[in-house]
Structure formats: C-alpha cells, structure tokens
Here is the input.
Amino acid sequence: QVQLVESGGGLVQAGGSLRLSCAASGITFNTYVMGWFRQAPGKQRELVAAIGSGGFTNYADSVKGRFTISRDNAKNMVFLQMNSLKPEDTAVYYCNAFKAGRDNWGQGTQVTVSS
Here is the structure.
C-alpha cells in the first residue's frame, strides 16, 4: 500500500521560507518520479516541481529561482525548499509519486503566506 506523508507546512510572512518533507512507503522509491503540487481555494491543482529518479528537475515558472526540490533515495523522502514566499504561494501542497501512468497522492499540508 502506497503511503505519502507530508509535513512542514504552516504560516509564514511574505519573504520567509518553509521546507516541506514527504516520506514515502510501499513503493520502490527510486523508480518513481516525485513531485509537489498545490491547490489554492477555487483553483485547479497545479504542478509546482518534480524530480526524476536520476535527479532531473522541472519547475513551474512561478516558482523558478525560489523553490528547490530534492530527494533522498536512501531515506525514501522528497523535499521542497521554499524561499522568498509570496501570498500567492498560499495553498495546500500535495506530495505525488508517479510511475507508469499512475498517480499516488499524500493528504496535503497547508502553506499560508501572510502579506
């Protein structure tokens, strides 16, 4: 059974930083593409960043230069370092594990950025 557990969300002032973590179990972690998505109220869920098993990364234009995704294959974890946070980054952030056309999701963690 796939399980993805996010942590690290919270309330931060604009310009601040947060680091999200996602612990994965029930999968052969190093064979999955891992990603972070977010969903703000009234908006569709969107990709924030993704990282392949070999470390290749992809970012949404809105977070390039501010967010960094990384993974630790030995610990089955993926991280999202978020710097220079803006109020528009406020959303529920979801961890995603993708392989062979199938998505697996965590329960989400709330990030709120105050102006």
